[in-house]
Amino acid sequence: GIQVEQSPPDLILQEGANSTLRCNFSDSVNNLQWFHQNPWGQLINLFYIPSGTKQNGRLSATTVATERYSLLYISSSQTTDSGVYFCAVGGIRNTGNQFYFGTGTSLTVIP
Amino acid sequence: ETGVTQSPTHLIKTRGQQVTLRCSSQSGHNTVSWYQQALGQGPQFIFQYYREEENGRGNFPPRFSGLQFPNYSSELNVNALELDDSALYLCASSGRGSKNTQYFGPGTRLTVL
Predict the structure, then answer these.
(1) Cβ of B98 and A91 within 8 Å?
(2) Which residues in chain A touch residue B46, judged by CB atoms under 8 angstroms apart?
(3) Could you list the pLDDT tens digit for every one of the 113 residues in chain B?
């Protein structure tokens, strides 16, 4: 099956720092989403980005579909950015509507 | 526009029992997917329902089953509970097709003793 790898697995930042999270996937996809999971388990949509670049406030994301990776940028980090960030991919041939998640990046922002 | 809701929030069962989890999809969405998230891992796809029929299944045994109702809400049923079934169960709603954004509910945390 498809492999979805995220790096780094853990990240500790000082408030105000910038960071880049990476997601590599092993097959062609037509759906890629980034999520933030808060401490209560809620998965919050950040971006739907199967290709190209999007920005939303301090967050931006880029997916290079031909090279099978996506990047999530967090600028001027805040303590509320803490949590686990997941990328998930779907629309892979012969897998129907399965959505595959990476193992996540756990981010801790300290004041 | 209402979001995805799930019930109950928490549940404790003993090994061998059966459990039913419920999910109401976001308005305008006709597809519901269920995921299992064990502690420290990413969510794993269980199955998806579209128009009351199963529309894809992950690597889970038949004791995991589901239903979707005409209003697109859904149930996840797990029979003969095992200790390893302890997890956060998430449901997501979307439009049909793999290119649609999935929106997740808050989850049900199941503990099997």
Answers:
(1) yes
(2) none
(3) 569 999 999 999 999 999 999 999 988 888 999 999 999 999 999 999 988 999 889 999 999 999 999 989 999 999 999 999 999 999 999 887 767 888 999 999 999 99
Residue B76, classified by CB atoms within 10 Å of its CB into exposed (0-12), middle (13-18) or buried (19+), is buried
Residues B89/B111, Cβ–Cβ less than 8 Å:
no
d(CA B108, CA A98) in angstroms, rounded, equals: 21
d(CA A48, CA A37): 15
How near does any CA of chain B get to the CA of A90, in Å? 6
CB A28 within 8 A of CB A18: no
First to last CA, chain B: 38
**Which pLDDT tens digit goes with each residue over B15-46?**
999 999 999 998 888 899 999 999 999 999 99
Residue with tokens 């001027």, as numbered in its chain: A76
> What one-character-per-residue DSSP string does chain B give?
----EEE-SEEEE-TT--EEEEEEPPTT--EEEEEEE-TTS--EEEEEEETTEEEEE-S--TTEEEEE-TTS-EEEEE-S--GGG-EEEEEEEE-SSTTSPPEE---EEEEE-
* Pairwise CB contact (< 8 Å): B98 & A31: yes
Are A2 and A99 in contact by the 8 Å Cβ rule? The answer is no
Closest CA to A90 of A30, A10, A25, A14: A30
